[in-house]
Amino acid sequence: MRGIPKLVRQSLTAKLIISTGLGLLLSIAGLSYLAIVHQEEQLMGYMVAEADRLGTTIKLGTHYAMMLNSREDIQQIIANIGRQKDILALRIYNKAGEIKYSNVEREIDTRTNIEAEACHVCHRASPPLSSLALDERIRVFENWDGTRLMGILDPVYNEPGCTEGCHYHPSDKKILGAIDVVVSLEDLDREVALFKNRIIGFTAVVFLALASVIYIFMLRFVIRPIRKLIVGTQLIAKGGECSRIDIDHEDEMGQLAKSITDMGRDISNKQIELNRQKDEYQYLFSHVPCIITVQDRNFRLLRYNLEFKEKFKPKNADFCYHAYKGRNEKCPNCPVELTFQTGRSYCSEESGPDADGRMRHWLVTTSPVRNAEGEIVAAMEMSLDISSRKQLEQKLERSERKYLAIFKNTPNPLFVLDAETLNVLDCNESAQAIYGFEKNELVGTSFLEFWREEEREATADLLRQARVLDRAKNVIRDGRSIYVTVRVSPSEYSGRKVLLVTTSDITKRLETEQQLIQASKMATLGEMATGVAHELNQPLSVIKTASSFIARKISRKEPIDEEILGTMAREIDSHVDRATRIINHLREFGRKPEMSLEPVRVNEVLRRAFDIFSQQLKLREITVDWRLDESLPPIKADPGRLEQVFINMLINARDAIEERWAGTTAPPGGKRITITSRRISGGVRVEVEDTGRGIPRGILDKIFEPFFTTKKVGKGTGLGLSISYGIIKDCGGTIRAESVEGEWTRFVMTFPEWKNEGERHG
Fold this sequence. Notes:
The strands form five sheets. The chain has a five-stranded antiparallel beta sheet. Strands 7-6-10-9-8 form a five-stranded antiparallel beta sheet, with helices on both faces. A five-stranded antiparallel beta sheet has the order 12-11-15-14-13, with helices on both faces. By secondary structure, it is α+β, with helices and mostly antiparallel strands. The protein is built from 19 helices and 22 strands.
């Protein structure tokens, strides 16, 4: 830029004229060059066509003389044609390269080098070429005086007439010779030069005219308005307000003048606003509730806000590290130092005592402060007091360690499952102890692998919906089955929705409960012995009577009427069936089945339980009042265990009635058991009410506790109601007792209705 003259550097007009002129000059020069080339090609084409026609004319003109072998006529024709203007040479070569005819007599019968320019065009190949395009037969070269010449070669072909007569030529020869015409290009070159001079003159005139127009236009519409604009902008730059710039144009320059005037007004208003904001930001800098300092490369405090001043009470020209931490040298890994080195912002956490000696924690962020040239002249450090958050983090960390220890050391298996796939994300050490799998074997596998394959789909739905799955059957590593209670709690883990699942191994508890239930059954069987004896006594009496009658008839050799014999046989058969049902009932009641919930008709179970005691209750003069709803839906229960519950209810009712009326005569209806069943919302309600001695109010809430009994020593185990309570709970039902001491007691039981197959896994 310094090599450019000052006038050009400082003049928009000069730059525009030069740039436009150069562009125009280059454009016209390019167009001129193309026009010259085109003109030259046109003239050259014309000359080539004329020369080619001349060669053809000579060949046609000499054709007759050649057929007669009249050499003098041929030479005369060549000489006459060669006298025309611009024809410098006219030759006829034979196939050996000899000039046989020429307008220059000294060349006749001279031999030309076969590699010469005129001959080389055909003889560059072996054998020589017999056919050439027009542009291949043309050659341009310079004369001795520097003018350009053009030669065109026209081959003379062998014709049938040439193969006979006195100048016989072999028929296998295609070319007999060639006609070479050489013409001058002096006139063509002169015309091209004249065209070039005209183009150059036109370009110069156009350039000067355009430069003059541009200068006048720029002076009138650009330079003078720009000078006025410069004056106005200089006034604005000095802080003044440019009220008006005297430019009356309606074009872009006038619009620019108006815009600069408006800009000056806006800048003046914004300067006022900027000063107001400057004061506001200065206030914010000083009063922002975090620590802000500005430091130089030596870590000396250049500026700081009130928060820093109040917390650390710095001295004048104090150093950052001394004011913050009372150090005599910079802190290691100083973020301000890194900012000066790299020019980037950095963050770190710092700790140290404040002016009162309390340990504080700060989140430090640094940022470079640059001058107008982009050089870093200072660094701003902002420190946010995070002492409270740090204390919370420390508490949270201690809490996490505590809960992690609880997670790991919980005696029950604890699993973290993906809420969608139910895959195990994490588990504690107790899972290995219970299930036999290593932690790395469980993580990533499906939690449903612990269930049998046919139960997995229903279990998956329950895990996502339910919160507790009781008596779930799991398969552990060694193939054994265990019973667990599964508790599910939705939560979040590492930003994803999970299920926290704990399993409690209740296998031993269930075995103990089974033993207690079985013991209770055995005790109940003992209680039922008297009733069973009465139940079996009737069919045995019938069988004994019939057999004695038959034996007596046989001993007397008396005939037995067939009708009587048939009647006795049918009676014996029916009573044997009855005895068999009683024995099978006892056998089924006494066996030890697993808990299995299924649809059950509660009225059928009530009647089956009553069958055992029907005779026993008759002997004790206890009547049973049946109030059963025969349209009940099936309930969800285990039929064998439900029968045990009803038997316990009947035994307790029988004992309560006998205790109340022992040694006294009961009035009519005084010994009565009422059995009621009816439908309720979502299930079935069963009531067993007796007119016994009742239960004192003070112990009504204890009767379902294990081993609690109000019967005399040796008359009860205290397990009946406790086991009945557990059985009903396992069926999803409820049981409660209502009583008026000395008058009656009622046990109210509710059972859920059997709805769908999925409830079996509940």
